[in-house]
Write a structure and sequence with these properties.
CATH class: Alpha Beta
Distance between the termini: 35 Å
Strand content: 15-25%
CATH topology: Rossmann fold
Shape: globular
Structural class: alpha/beta
Helix content: 40-55%
Radius of gyration: 17 Å
CATH architecture: 3-Layer(aba) Sandwich
């Protein structure tokens, strides 16, 4: 991708996200109630089961949107000394600031923080939007002291690939990758460990209210079934920085 094409793609994507955030939640706009009632709480549960025993933590969230994860974290009991959110969209930042969160406008590929600034860096559905994922991955490893956790779109999922063909996904610059490709984005020489795990199995957007419990049940079961679980649209990426 040439620099000009990449710049035009990024500009179009940011304009589209500004429009969505000016109206409210991108999660609600892109997924409906299933995203609010299942995907967001799922993210929080994945965080809690790994980091609830560590703390207090300095946490950075990249691409924090309107603060949906930040609100859940505030109420979760996860031991946090400090939370900082970054977001490129000004309408989203304004909503976060109205809720009292420490946040700043930043590009995920160029974080204005010193090395080793945070105990834990998280990002939920961000990397598949950026022009150069390797840059975002390098920045995550640079600013964390130890841990990072991302949720990303699974390039092995047929449902995920179908979603990316829609005009809305194209307008938002969505491009998923295979698990091993995501792992390769991170600078291996600085890692002690990195792993990927699929989840959110066969969950379509805009699930009718009455079907949400059924869809959630099959997804939770499906993530433990060999083979079937790799149909999950999302990947959990968990990494640890090598001690220096």
């Amino acid at each position: 991708m040439t620099k000009q094409i990449a710049s035009e793609r990024a500009q179009t994507m940011h304009v589209n996200y500004d429009r969505i955030y000016a109206q409210g939640s991108s999660r609600m706009a892109n997924e409906g109630q299933i995203g609010m009632r299942y995907r967001l709480p799922k993210y929080l549960s994945l965080l809690r089961e790994r980091y609830a025993g560590r703390g207090p933590l300095d946490v950075l969230e990249i691409g924090a949107g309107v603060g949906e994860i930040a609100l859940l974290l505030r109420e979760s009991g996860l031991p946090m000394r400090r939370y900082v959110g970054t977001e490129y969209s000004l309408p989203a930042l304004r909503q976060m600031r109205r809720q009292g969160f420490d946040c700043a406008q930043m590009n995920a590929e160029r974080l204005a923080f010193p090395d080793n600034s945070f105990d834990l860096v998280v990002a939920f559905d961000v990397m598949h939007h950026v022009d150069v994922p390797q840059r975002m991955a390098a920045e995550i490893v640079r600013v964390t002291r130890r841990d990072f956790l991302l949720s990303e779109s699974n390039g092995l999922s047929p449902l995920r690939k179908l979603v990316e063909l829609t005009p809305k996904a194209r307008a938002l610059g969505e491009r998923s990758y295979a698990p091993w490709t995501y792992r390769a984005f991170f600078p291996q020489e600085h890692l002690a460990a990195i792993s990927t795990q699929p989840f959110y199995v066969l969950v379509p957007p805009y699930v009718p209210e009455r079907l949400i419990p059924l869809v959630v049940a099959q997804s939770e079961l499906g993530q433990y079934v060999a083979g079937w679980r790799w149909l999950g649209q999302s990947l959990l990426i968990v990494g640890e920085k090598r001690s220096t």
